[in-house]
Structure formats: structure tokens, C-alpha cells
Amino acid sequence: MRIKEEKNKIIIKDQPDFEPCHIFECGQAFRWEKQKDSSYTVVSNGKVINVAKEKEDIIINNTDIEDFYNIWQDYFDLNTDYSSIKSTLDTDEIMKTAINFGQGIRILNQDEFETMISFIISANNRIPMIKKVIENLSINFGDKIGEYNGKLYYSFPTYEQLANAPIEIIRECKAGFRSERIKEAAIRIIDEKNTVYDLRNKSYDEALEYLLSYKGVGNKVANCILLFSMKQFSTFPVDVWVRRVMQELYVSKMTSDKEIRKFAEDKFGHMSGYAQQYLFYYARENGIGR
DNA sequence: TCCCAGGTCCTGA
DNA sequence: TCAGGACATGGG
Known about the structure:
By secondary structure, the protein is an alpha+beta fold. α4 (about 95-100) packs across α14 (about 270-285). The chain has helices at about 20-25, 65-75, 80-90, 95-100, 110-120, 125-140, 160-165, 165-175, 180-195, 205-210, 220-230, 240-250, 255-270, 270-285; strands at about 1-5, 10-15, 30-35, 40-45, 45-55, 55-60, 145-150, 150-155. β7 (about 145-150) and β8 (about 150-155) form a beta hairpin. The chain is built from 14 helices and 8 strands. It has 3 domains: about 1-80, TATA-Binding Protein; about 110-230, Endonuclease III, domain 1; about 240-285, Endonuclease Iii, domain 2 (Orthogonal Bundle), CATH 1.10.1670. The structure holds a DNA duplex.
């Protein structure tokens, strides 16, 4: 990896397997905005950055070399070899097509608490609406980060900030019936933060069981949290899109979500999480099964 | 107006 | 264990 620092930006030279639109629009993250020039402005780790691709180079604007090595290198999972993951996975024509379609996907390393709350909000909701609710919560309860390209940005609220948030204001953020779940989780995490931030070091079964004890965290949400913030890649979360693409291309229409998960986890093993992301992005962008 | 969304919870077999 | 309805909100 060759890194070049320029004024207020970092350039990653000749970075393979990195496509901003694949990374941000594959459903793992919600705090991004596509700009007119097709770059992505992203809020994470209390910072605002803008990510663009120019030929084979990745440009991260509004950052410096220190933040790159302390934050973004891990956030963008730059130490993982996605070419090797892809060549392991593409053992059938369906996966070949899905991988080819989303060839620049990477699984981000996101904050545990933010991911928990984000996926509690995702229940029975649409992605644009999930993004809206999260933005509302950030504006109301997060810290002001600053202005970038004429727009003010706010960090995702901490568990203290959400625990202290009046429930009626959380409702005004359009969180709906998930409002109580958000506040309850935040209150609980004040006492259990050490446990939550240590889940990535626990076994899959132990971490899953713990997450399921939260209201609003069922099997699907728990597995998304495990995959997107706790480096548990042997899980295959099944949502409406993954159900459609699997029933359309791999299994019969009668197959239950539980059976789909088992089928996929047996087939893809410790790469299940990556396979799920390629399939989700492929299904959603192409309206598979709709 | 009705249907549905990156589901979960509750209830009753 | 599992099917079926309720749940806020907004877009099609």
C-alpha cells in the first residue's frame, strides 16, 4: 500500500478492490451522502471525510496521515486481501456474477454501539428512512463536528447522549416504535460498555446470545451487528433481499430464513458474511425477485 | 387506499 | 418451536 499525503488529503495509490459506491451502497453503513461528482461524504469516528476514486487511486479528502493510520486504514479494512476472498468465493456462476457486479465491496469496521442502534432502527424500515432517522438523531443529540463543503455535520450520538435523550424527541426523529428500544439499549450500554466492546473477542455463539438479550435485536439484526462491527464473518444475515436472491437463485421458494442461513453458512463457511454482502448488493441493485 | 420496508415481539397453538 | 398479527412512518 502506497500512501501519499497532500494538503488536507490522503491518496492511496493503486488500491485494488475498492469502489466507493459499492462500499457505501451495499447496505452496511448509513452515514454517507453521494455528491454530484460521484464521491461520497462520510461521517464516522467523529470525523467527516470525502472518498473519491480517480483511476486506480483512492482519495480521502479532509483528513491527514495521522488519522489515516489511526482510523481509516482499519475502517476501510485495508489490510484484508479481497482478491483472495473473491477467488475463494466464486465457485459457482451465481457468486461469480454477484462478485463481478460488486467487485469493489469491502466490509467496513464500524463502531459497535453505532451499528447496534443503526440496525435496531433498520427493523421493518427502508434504507433511505433509516439514514434519515440516524441523521436526525445525530443532529439532535450528537456533537457538532464542523462544516465541510458548506454543510454542517454531527457525530453519531454516544450511548450517554442517547441514554439522556428524551423519548419524545427520539420519536420526533421518526424512529417510531423503535424509539424505546434505542433508549433502553443506550441506557444498558452505559453499564455494559466493556462487555459490548469486548464481543469481537468472544466466540460467535457467546456474542450472539448476548446481543439477542437486547429488545429490538433479533436474529437478523444481531448477525448484522456481528458482521459489520465485530469481525464475525461466518454469519449470513437473511433479510428480505437476501431471501429473494437466495430463493430465486439457490433454493426453493418454500425455504425458511433459518434454512437459508444454514444452507449459506454451510456453503460459504468463514466467508459467509462477504458472500452475503455481494449477494445483497447484487439483489438490491438489480431488483432480483421483485 | 393499500402495500411494503435490511424485523422483532407477543400470543396462542 | 412456529405461524400470525401489531407496530410508526413514508413512498409508490
